[in-house]
Specification:
There is one protein chain. It is built from 7 helices and 17 strands. The protein is an alpha/beta fold. Strands 2-1-17-16-14-3-12-13-15 form a 9-stranded mixed sheet, covered by helices on one side. A hairpin with a 2-residue loop joins strand 9 and strand 10. The longest helix has 14 residues.
Length: 368
């Protein structure tokens, strides 16, 4: 039930800094997984490699196939001052939007010296800068940039991060942050899930640097989400329709998948029905565009039935989405349990699985 949570501070919790994971575990699927039963609010401590036990034949697992670009680039002003460029997205072949930080204000026309050549600041666009590049944008950053580790990871990116801060099924370049729930999947886990009769489908949502921007207003009605590019294709729409018709679940791997699917569903609804708070029969059609969908308590989910996600920052829009899905009190209680149990938090941390029931297949996983 929606209780009118409209303040940023309604989604605060205490997190000891030492629980913020600074590096991935050696094995992707070895992370812990806190299972939250949406019906009862009861948490259970499991492991990600046990996920097949929580799925049933015919369930549809939807994954985000975005590929992270090496989006952080260090350069210098002609005078020698250090400049950091963080790619937001390419806008044409040799132009992009980016965040730029330097010791002194950045101005239009600035030429930045980088290992790959000169980058020119073309002008301001909102909170971002449009930049001109000496080569196609994504190729340029992948060649000369660094892995854009989140700001709460307090170490320099290493060569191993190029592999581990990327899912096994990443194929569509464009993200500047990983869809981190996907990082838990290794080849063995994917094989066991498919062998169990669970289908898989893909969407693309290119995660932007804005995902790390804090909510700066107390009144959530005043918050404006950053835009992210989404593609939901015909094959995925057909797979969802098939699962729904068979009474099976659509299981989203990550909040990015939730936002992609729910954005597509809203886009497919008649304009008069959008935003009135009433449930609608599911309409889903192939869709590509930008989404600024802000999911928080009170949102009517149309597509997603279960969710695998990582733990999210206090007062963040991602935590608000999880609270919308499983209930604010239940989620924050589960977070307190995770803190007390020493779970690892954020991008390289542990996971949560949120569903109406805990296990369809409660027997032991014989391959573990």
């Amino acid at each position: 039930m929606y209780h009118g949570w409209v303040r940023r501070t309604d989604f605060a919790y205490d997190l000891p800094p030492e629980l913020i994971a600074q590096a991935p575990l050696p094995e992707r699927s070895a992370s812990r997984m806190l299972v939250l039963n949406r019906a009862t609010g009861a948490p259970a401590d499991r492991l990600v490699r046990e996920l097949p036990q929580l799925l049933a034949p015919g369930d549809l697992l939807v994954l985000n196939d975005t590929r992270v670009v090496a989006a952080r680039l260090i350069g210098a002003k002609p005078t020698g001052g250090r400049v950091e460029i963080l790619l937001e997205r390419a806008v044409c072949e040799r132009e992009a939007l980016a965040q730029i930080s330097a010791s002194k204000p950045v101005r239009e026309g600035l030429m930045i010296v980088t290992p790959g050549g000169m980058v020119q600041v073309l002008g301001r666009e909102g909170e971002l800068w449009r930049i001109g590049l000496p080569a196609p944008a994504l190729d340029f950053f992948d060649r000369w940039g660094q892995v854009p580790l989140p700001p709460y990871i307090h170490r320099a990116a290493e060569e191993s991060d190029r592999r581990r801060y990327q899912s096994l099924f990443a194929r569509e370049r464009g993200a500047v942050a990983a869809p981190t729930a996907s990082l838990h999947f290794d080849a063995s886990l994917l094989q066991r899930i498919r062998a169990q009769g669970v289908d898989t489908a893909f969407v693309t949502l290119h995660v932007g640097a804005g995902t790390f921007q804090p909510v700066r207003v107390d009144d959530l009605d005043a918050h404006v989400m950053h835009a992210e590019q989404v593609t939901v294709g015909a094959v995925t729409c057909e797979a969802i329709a098939k699962a729904k018709a068979a009474g099976r679940r659509v299981v989203a791997v990550g909040t990015t998948v939730v936002r992609a699917l729910e954005s597509a569903a809203l886009n497919a609804e008649p304009a008069a029905g959008v935003g009135d708070g009433a449930p609608h029969p599911l309409r889903l059609a192939p869709w590509s565009g930008e989404t600024r969908l802000f999911i928080r308590p009170g949102f009517q989910f149309r597509v997603v039935d279960a969710l695998l996600t990582n733990f999210h920052l206090p007062e963040s829009t991602l935590l608000m989405l999880v609270c919308a899905f499983a209930g604010r009190e239940s989620v924050l209680r589960a977070y307190r349990h995770a803190v007390e149990a020493g779970y690892r938090f954020f991008s390289y941390g542990d996971a949560m699985f949120l569903a109406g029931g805990i296990a369809h297949n409660p027997g032991p996983d014989k391959e573990d």
